[in-house]
Design goal:
alpha+beta; elongated; six-stranded antiparallel β-sheet; 15% helix; Cyclophilin
């Protein structure tokens, strides 16, 4: 086993996996990694089971040391990482040696979430069958909270993996570009006025600074609901709620279990993995898509990674 020690944690770093299933009826958030593509790739690069818990780092400012050699991989946002002050390219495996320091600095505007996988995985107690942290619920992860300076994580160490695995350049996503999000009609789609639906699909929105693991608020032409208050109902991952002032809010993994705002659409999960990496100011567009086609694409995504995991 190896002991990893957190030496810097300025913003928000937490233990995450695929999240909790069949717990929302108890009022518990789903949680889990925001960007599943980067999560799977990080575990793949170190030879882990693809569902192995990782450290999810939001916008950087995190560093860690080890007491024995350990193989790691860093994917997701480009956070100007260094290994003992030497620039470290993301999306490949590497070995962190005792006495050396892995520093993850500020994101360069190309992504929000970074993923640090450790060969063999981290020893984390499961809570409702998941290691994912939900700080507001004090569940999962490291003592139910984000990581802090001085925290020590124990790894389940096999043997160091030679740092030979890397991601082909054409498979490394770029997160600094405008996004078109494919959506399916939401619960209340048909109750919106036709003009509001047309406005929603034809307008440019931008990502605001009001973003966290719960949701992302967008800014743009307001969408008029005009139907008065509605009863709260369950909210799915990727639901687009329209607030009282007409702003779209896309709900993420740590969303509440029910919501009382009208829901105009649901973002494709594959597109959601891109949206969470979008910096404030990124242009966002919406387009209606065939639900069956989106489901087929999602199944191909999971089947692809599942085949690599077998």
């Amino acid at each position: 086993m190896a002991k990893l020690t957190v030496t810097r944690a300025d913003f928000f770093a937490s233990i995450q996996d695929m999240g909790r299933r069949q717990t929302q009826h108890m009022g518990l958030a789903q949680s889990g990694v925001a960007d599943e593509h980067s999560f799977f790739r990080a575990n793949y690069l170190v030879g882990n089971n693809l569902a192995t818990p990782v450290i999810e780092i939001i916008t950087g400012l995190f560093s860690i040391t080890t007491d024995v050699p350990v193989t790691m991989a860093l994917t997701g946002a480009d956070m100007s990482a260094t290994l003992n002050k030497i620039p470290l390219s993301p999306w490949q495996s590497f070995v962190l040696m005792p006495g050396k320091l892995l520093e993850i600095n500020n994101s360069r505007g190309n992504g929000i979430y970074g993923y640090l996988a450790v060969k063999g995985g981290l020893e984390i107690d499961l809570c409702f069958n998941s290691a994912s942290t939900v700080e507001r619920e004090q569940l999962g992860g490291y003592q139910g909270r984000k990581l802090a300076v001085g925290d020590e994580l124990t790894t389940i160490l096999d043997r160091p993996l030679c740092p030979t695995l890397s991601t082909p350049p054409d498979q490394i996503p770029q997160f600094d570009r405008p996004l078109t999000l494919r959506i399916m009609p939401g619960y209340d789609h048909d109750s919106f006025p036709d003009e509001a639906k047309q406005m929603f699909l034809s307008s440019e929105y931008t990502v605001t600074t009001r973003i966290d693991r719960t949701g992302i608020r967008l800014e743009g032409p307001p969408i008029v609901w005009g139907q008065g208050d509605i009863l709260s109902k369950p909210v799915a991952l990727g639901v687009v709620q329209i607030t009282n002032d007409g702003a779209p809010v896309v709900l993420l993994k740590e969303r509440q279990t029910t919501g009382g705002y009208p829901m105009i659409g649901v973002v494709s999960r594959l597109d959601l993995f891109k949206l969470v990496q979008a910096f404030p100011g990124t242009p966002i567009y919406f387009a209606l898509a065939d639900p069956l086609r989106l489901r087929s694409e999602l199944m191909r995504f999971y089947n692809f990674w599942g085949a690599l995991d077998s």
